[in-house]
Amino acid sequence: MNALVPFLHRTRIAYFSMEIALRPEIHTYSGGLGVLAGDTARSAADLDLPMVFVTLLSREGYIRQEIGVQENQINKPNPWRPEEWASPLPAMIAVSIEGRSVWVRPWLYLLTCPVGNVVPVLLLDTDLEQNSAEDRQITDRLYGGDDAHRLKQEIVLGIGGSLLLRALGFRIQTYHLNEGHAALLALQLLRETHRPGGLGSPSVYDRPSVRERCVFTTHTPVEAGFDRFDYGLVSRLLGDFFDLAELKTLAGEDRLNMTRLALNLSGYVNGVARRHAETASGLFPGYQIRSITNGVHVQTWVHSELARRLEARFPQWAHEPEVIALADQIPDDEIWAAHQAAKVQLLGTIRERTGTELQLDLPLIGFARRMTSYKRPNLLFTDLARLKQIARDRPFQVVLAGLAHPLDDPGKQIIEELHRHIRALQDAIPIVFLPEYDMTLARMLVSGADIWLNTPLPPLEASGTSGMKAALNGVLNLSVMDGWWVEACVEGVTGWGIQGTPPGAGDAEALYRKLEDVVLPLYQDRARWIWMMKQSISKIGPTFNSHRMMRRYATEAYMR
Fold it and tell me: If DSSP codes are grouped into helix, strand and coil, which group holds residue 255?
C-alpha cells in the first residue's frame, strides 16, 4: 500500500476502461480502444495530471492470432504474468453477483514517463481463493464468454472499481468512462445518492450530482455495437442492487443499454472526432455530444530514427508536440534516411515471419485494422483484374495485418478471403498478411509502410488513430473521408482522400483511380514525395497527439 501513498491525496480523476495497452508484454488490450487508453495514460503521466486508471487484469489476455493451413484465423491463448509487471495490493472489496460475494483485488502497475512522472493503474482481479471456481474466471480473459460473463466483467469494472478506489483511500471528483463498458460505475454513484421516500412520497435519486462527476466518451458509431443486456439477466446477476423501474428510465425500457445509461448519467459526453460526434448525435437525438478528436502519444509511435532527428533539433518535441510543426525544416535526405531505416526494419520482419522478400525501392501499401466488415479490409481487392492492370504499369507491394474478434465470423471470413486474393495475385503483386498483430508489430507497420490505406464504410469510422501514427512518421494516408481524416486531409499535401460516387458504393473505383493516376506516379517523384512526407509530419503531428487531447479533456471536461 505504501506505493499508493504519493497518489492518494492528489488524485482527483479516475479513468475507467475495459482494456488498456500499457506495453506489448501486458496483454490487457485487443485493439484501438485499448491503445487509445494506453496513450491517454502515457500523456497523463507526461503532463503530471492527477489521474488513476482502472481496468481488468485479463491475465489470459485477448487472443494470439495464428493462420492455419486452411488460411483461417486460429485463436490461441495469449497469457501474461502479472507478477512480472505489477504488484498485488493488500486490499479487497466484494461485489454481489447472483447473491454471492465476489471478491476483487487490485494489482498496481506504475506507468512512468521519461521525465519521471508516474500515474497508477489498477488492474482488477477475481482469481482469489475466496471466490468460487466460476467467479475466479470473471477477469481472466478480455471480452471472453457470453452475455452473462460480459455483464459480470462490467459489474467488476464499474461497481467493483469504484468501491476499490474508495477503499484504497482515493478521493475522486471526476470519473471518466471510456466507452459504455464502465456505465455501472455511474449507477453505483447514483445508488449512493438514494434517499428513501416517506409517507407515500417516492424515493429520490440525485441524478444532477452524478452527472456533475461523470464524463463519458463514446466510440462505437453504430447502434448494434452498444452493449445491451436483458433485464432478466440483470436482475439475476444484480438482484435488488438498483430499482428496476428507475433503471429502465435511464437505460431503456426493453434492455439495459450501457451507452444510454452512460449518456443519462454523464454531464459531459463526447465523440472522438468531429464527424463521429455528428454521427453519434444522430443516433442519440436530444443529447449534447461534443467532440474531442483522439490523438496518439508521439514518443511511443514515432520511429527511433525519426525521433533521433527530431530530438537533435527540437529537444522538447515529445513533451510539446506543437514544435513538430517545424519538422518541415529537417533536410530531405534525413527524412528519407529515417524512413528507409524504418522500412528496412519492417521488410526484415516480413521476411522473418513469412519468408517473402519485399523490395525496398517499390512503394509499400500498409493496411492494419481490426478485421471486421465495416472497415472493409477487402475493398482494395474488389476488382482483381483492375488491380493487376494498375500494378503492371505502376508496380507496388501490400502488407496486411489485423485480428478478427473470436465471435466475429464475417471478420474471420474476410481473413480467409484476403489469403485467397494474395494467392490469386501472387504473380502480379507481392502481398503478405502478418499474423499476431500487436503493439510491437503496429509500431513497425505505421513507420515502415510508404502509404497507409484506410477504407471504412462511412460514417462508421469513429476516429482511426492508426492513420495518425502513420502520419507522424511521414507515411502518407490514403483514406476514405471519415473519422479523424475529415479534419486532417489536405488533398495532395498531407495525403489523399477517397470519395466515391456514390459514397460507399463508388469507393473502390475512387481508390483505383487515385492509386493509378496520383499516388503511385508521385512515388517516382522523390522530391515531391518527401515534401508531402514533411507536410504530413509537420501539419498533422502538432494537432493529432494525445497531449493535445488530454489538455482538452482537462480544461473542457474535467474542470467543468
Answer: strand
CA 468 to chain centre: 12
Are residues 6 and 106 located together in one domain of the fold? yes
Gap between the Cα atoms of 266 and 277, Å rounded: 16
Q: pLDDT tens digits for 464-487?
A: 999 999 999 999 999 999 999 999
- State the pLDDT confidence band at 327, using cuts at 50, 70 and 90: very high
Report yes or no: 162 and 122 within 8 Å, Cβ to Cβ. no
Q: Given pLDDT bands bounded at 50, 70 and 90, which one contains residue 1?
A: low
In 3D space, the residue among 20, 12, 23, 17 whose CA is nearest the CA of residue 49 turns out to be 12
Beta-sheet strands, E only, within 421-555: 431-434, 451-454, 476-480, 495-498
Is the domain of 312 the same as that of 453?
yes
- Distance of CA 444 to CAs 78, 348, 401, 434, 495, Å? 21, 10, 12, 12, 20
Nearby residues of 518 by Cβ (< 8 Å), 6 or more positions away = 492, 496
- How far apart CA 450 and CA 359 sit, in angstroms, is 12
Q: Are residues 105 and 33 in the same domain?
A: yes
The verdict on 340 and 285 lying in the same domain is no
pLDDT, tens only, 412-460: 999 999 999 999 999 999 999 999 999 999 999 999 999 999 999 999 9
* Integer Cα distance of 55 and 108 in angstroms: 11
Contact 451, 457 (CB under 8 A): no
- Residues whose CB falls within 8 Å of the CB of residue 64, separated by 6 or more in sequence, listed in order: 75, 76, 77, 78, 436
- Give me Rg for the CA atoms of the chain: 24
| Alpha helix positions (H), 214-290 | 231-238, 244-251, 258-264, 274-283
| Residue 374: strand pairing partners | none
Cell of 505: 458504393
Return d(Cα 485, Cα 507) in angstroms, integer: 15
The verdict on 156 and 213 lying in the same domain is yes
CATH of the domain at 29: 3.40.50.2000
Dihedral angle sign, alpha carbons of residues 399, 405, 406, 408: negative
Please name the residues in contact with 86: beta carbons below 8 A apart, sequence gap of 6 or more.
Answer: 107, 108, 109, 121, 123
d(CA 333, CA 310): 14
CA distances from 42 to 118, 151, 301, 314, 538 (A): 9, 29, 12, 20, 22
Long-range Cβ pairs for the range 39-42 (8 Å, 24+) = 39/295, 39/296, 39/297, 39/300, 39/465, 39/546, 40/15, 40/178, 40/546, 40/549, 40/550, 41/15, 41/111, 41/119, 41/121, 42/111, 42/113, 42/297, 42/299, 42/300, 42/546
3-class DSSP state for residue 156? Answer: helix
Q: Provide the grid cell at 316.
A: 522538447
Give, in order, the Cα–Cα distances in Å from 396 to each of 420, 470, 496. 19, 18, 17
C-alpha span between 537 and 541 (Å, rounded): 5
The span from the CA of 504 to the CA of 442, in Å, is 27
DSSP state of 362: S
How many domains are there within the chain?
2
